[in-house]
Amino acid sequence: MLAPTPTASARGARTQGAICIKDVVKVYDPDRAAIMAVDHCTLDIAAGEICMIVGPSGCGKTTLLNAIAGFHSITSGEIYLDGELLCGPDKPMANPGPDRIVVFQNGALFPWKTNLENVAFGVVMQGKMRKKEAYEKARAMMADAGLSGTEHNYPGEVSSGLRRRVEIVRALMNDPKVLLFDEPYRALDSLTKSVMHEALLEIYYKNNVTIFFITHDLEEAIFLGHRLVIMTSRPCRPKQILDVDIPHPRDYSVLTTPRFRELMDQTIEAVHEEARKSFEAGEREG
Amino acid sequence: MFREHAASMQSRPSSEAEQLIVRLLKRTMPFQVISEGMLQSVAAVSRPFSYRAGEVIYRAGDKADDVYVVVSGAVDHLLSDTPTTVERNRVMHSGDVFGWAAVLGQDKRVRLATATCVETAEVIRINGAALIERLNDDPATAKVVMSRFATMITREFGAPAAAAQIVAPNRTVSDAPAAVPRPRGHATGLALTLYRISRWLRSPKPFLMLLGFALFLGFWYLSVQVWKLPRFREMPGLTTVFHEWFSKNPTYGLSFYTPEYYQDIWVSVRRVGIAFFLATALGVPLGLFLGWSRTFREYVFPVFEMLRPIPVLAWVPLAILMFSGSETPVIFLTFLASFFATALNTMLGVESIDESYTRAADCLGASKMQVFRHVIVPGAMPYIFTGLQISVGVAWFSLVAAEMVSGQFGLGYVINTSYTMVRYPTIGIGMITLGAVGYVTSALVRIVGDSMMQWRVRELALGGR
Questions:
Q1: B27 has a pLDDT exceeding 90
Q2: Of all helices (H) and strands (E), which one includes residue B259?
Q3: Same domain (yes/no): A121, A228
Q4: Which residue of B has its CA nearest to A255?
Q5: Which residues in chain A are contacts of B165 at CB distance < 8 A?
Q6: Do A262 and A197 share a structural domain?
Q7: Is the CB of residue B145 less than 8 Å away from at least one CB of chain A?
Q8: B267-280: string of b/e by CB count within 10 Å (b at 16+)?
Q9: Residue A6: is its pLDDT beyond 60?
């Protein structure tokens, strides 16, 4: 529906981190009432792409993310990461691992560890680095992300915006192929959100990881993404894929461009229908 | 603040002046994108001011009400000492906007910089609250303007993180202005405790506490010895008890000056200490495994739940049959109640851990044992210490029961024998001592807990608790 975009060539600057979701079905079966959360979902995400998943509340987006991360099994279908099978018919549940790191909706920094200990956690646990070495690298990465001075604070002592940044740095310490975001900025106010968006892009330009990003916020989706995948209401399946042909690097001035407004209108139209369907189906907020 | 009154204030702008303001706003970073109508609406809440060279417009730490736009002249903008800023000092000219603290959340409207007029300057001031209200008429525009403000803040601070720190919603430190950097070192547990004590002493709380005690003792004295109320008449009176307690030659053989008093305290403390230690050493691991391993729990929990409600006194015969002597059964009984409280709370603690913590640890490549050590144990810690507080209280409770039934020496034994031997004032001494010693042990558990969970203490302190 849209011509191939110039941003498409910017993608794939990295050769690792391509996700291939093939015909995935997830059926929950509590009390023998089979509920289909994901329905024959097929989606290819290129290495280094920012793929925004947009859809009504409770449509099953998170189920898909959990399947990629290895928190949930799938009923049928396959998911590949760089051609390697994560989960499929013989292995319904992927193993969670540091190549696919989730940034959680409510944040999951360990409150009992300082920010520095949190950032160093992964590599120390995997035995990749000695503690001292890991702390050095963590300190450097935090400084790079503008987090100097908060190393010895506990997460509970800093603002939620800052916590999200620490959490992203914690993920990047492990040099992941894919970052999986589960509505990480949902609880933030719009002012903080806008700062966080620019910060995320800044991090992305430096690291160029593949980003799988679930959101409700259409402005966020268009501002950050290379592509928007609009999901149908439960069961969840891509309804429409929208290329965002605004060249990266982007900053907040794109919000006022006519092209942005146009894309916004297109998205609203596509999402609205699904939102209404899901509202009528009485899906709970979640 | 106070200087503002010194500045010459002009009358409300006419519509012609409003047009001038609209034209000025169009040149500013945050407002250049908004519609003519909205600009007029903003202009209507703007007021022109002028300042003489050298005049201070506001200082860091002042309350922030207005956003400023420079019309003409120059204003020096000096950020207070924040390590994350790129340039602390900036001179503002026509079309520059400063004083953005006024558009932040209610509790963050505090100046972070000092603005001084360098050469005679004309500015317009826009009330932050009024501005937000006007902008809210058109949420789409509001969003863009706020984003632009955010970008401006970001630039000023160089690092977006610093701006995020300022604008983030849940910084609730009311007595510390936002973005003032925290001291880098740790406040050690001891320093923090001392600080808390000194703060407590300066608050009205100690007086209220004393008043509470005075009322309680007063009621005791009056009801027993003065009014001689029906049910209180037979009780040992306040003065009788205290007289006996402080007597060098006590009538019934127990006071501050007799070694038996200390022996009884020591025996009880020792029993509680051993029982509490055993209960913790066994109860915490049991609770952790109950919460952590589903299979283990299927086996053990039903039995645990069946044994738990059996009162300590029901265990007395078995305890005496199982253990010889008089000491071990008492310790066993004391241990029992403590153990159940600790194990149950620890298990609840493990259950309370948010799933995303264990998932995050899985993502980061931690093994099952590492998850246990780094997530389950510290995550359950707050509940474990709540459990230990309860457990130490329960330990005293069951100790006294056990000492009354079987035992020699100890405060429970003293209270019980004093009754049978009609030494009523000694009952009072035993009870008050028991209360005081119990209070101290419970406080010790709390102090140990706080020092082991600095993260929690600091988090709660930020919440103003």
A1: no
A2: helix B259-292
A3: no
A4: B144
A5: 158-159, 161-162
A6: yes
A7: no
A8: bbbebbebbbebbb
A9: no
What confidence score (pLDDT) does residue B144 get? 74
CB contact under 8 A, A252 and B150: yes
pLDDT-derived band at B88, boundaries 50, 70, 90: low
3-state DSSP call for residue B415? helix
Q: What is the pLDDT of residue B155?
A: 62
- pLDDT range class, residue B352, cuts 50, 70, 90: very high
Cβ distance A195 to B357 less than 8 Å, yes or no, reads no
Give B101 to chain A, closest Cα distance, Å: 13
Cβ–Cβ < 8 Å for B423, B370: no
Range of the domain at A168: 113-175
> Between B171, B182, B367, which is nearest A153 by CB?
B182
Instruction: Return residues 85-124 of B near A (CB < 8 Å).
Output: 104-105
Q: CA-nearest residue of chain B to A185?
A: B168
The answer to whether A98 touches A177, Cβ cutoff 8 Å, is: no
Q: Which amino acid is at B212?
A: G
Which positions in chain B touch A139 (Cβ < 8 Å)? none
Distance CA(A269)–CA(A2), nearest Å, equals 16
Single-letter amino acid, residue B81: D
CB-count exposure of residue A285 (10 Å: 0-12, 13-18, 19+): exposed
Does A197 fall in a domain?
A: yes
Q: What percent of chain B has pLDDT over 70?
A: 85
Q: Is the pLDDT reported for residue B363 higher than 70?
A: yes
Fold (CATH) for B2-167: Jelly Rolls (2.60.120)
- State residue B87's pLDDT score: 53
CATH architecture group of domain B236-462: Orthogonal Bundle (1.10)
Opening angle at CA B2, ends B1 and B6, nearest 5: 115
Tokens representing A101 are 């790191």
Pairwise CB contact (< 8 Å): B458 & A251: no
Are A198 and B370 inside 8 Å of each other by CB?
Answer: no
Higher pLDDT, A195 or B10: A195
CB B463 within 8 A of CB B454: no
Q: How close is the nearest chain B Cα to the Cα of A280, in Å? A: 27
Closest by CA to A145, choosing from A117, A178, A130, A167, is: A167
Are residues A236 and A92 in contact, defined by beta-carbon separation less than 8 angstroms? Answer: no
CATH of the domain at A84: 3.40.50.300
Asked if the structure places residue A133 within a domain, the reply is yes
Question: What local confidence, expressed as pLDDT, does residue B20 receive?
Answer: 78
pLDDT band at B13 (very low <50, low <70, confident <90, very high): very low
Of B274 and B405, the structure prediction assigns the larger pLDDT to B274
Q: What is the pLDDT of residue A285?
A: 44
Q: Which of residues 414-443 of B touch A (CB under 8 A)?
A: none
**Does the residue A122 lie in any domain?**
yes
Within this chain, do residues A195 and A276 fall inside the same structural domain, yes or no?
yes
Of B154, B361, B379, the CB nearest to A195: B154
Q: What is the distance in angstroms between the Cα of B455 and the nearest Cα belonging to chain A? A: 5
